[in-house]
Amino acid sequence: MNLKKGIGSEYVELLEKSGVDTVKELQNRNPENLCFKMKFVNSSGHALVRSLPGFKSD
C-alpha cells in the first residue's frame, strides 16, 4: 500500500527520506527508532515539516 493516501506530501517525503516507502514497512518499524530517524532527517539541511510526530513510551 502506498504512503501517499491520507497524509500530507511533506510527511510522505520525510518518511521516504527516513527509509519508509510503504505502509507495511511503516507498520514493522520500531516507533522510537523511526522518531529519532525522522528528527535527524528533518534537521539535516532544510526542514521538511514544521511539526514532527512525537514518541510516547509507556
Topology:
Blueprint: H1 9-17, H2 23-28, H3 31-43
Give a structural overview.
With 58 residues, the chain is mainly α. The chain has a domain at 9-43. It contains three helices and no strands. The termini are far apart.
Mean pLDDT: 87
Helix content: 40-55%
Task: Count every beta strand, where a strand is a DSSP E run of 2 or more residues.
Answer: 0
- Percent of residues in β-strands: under 5%
Which regions have little confidence, pLDDT < 50, spanning 5+ residues? none
Question: Helix and strand succession?
Answer: HHH
CA-based gyration radius:
11 Å
The largest β sheet comes out as:
none
Given the helix and strand composition, which structural class is it?
mainly alpha
How far is the N terminus from the C terminus? 29 Å
Identify the overall geometry: globular
Total number of helices: 3
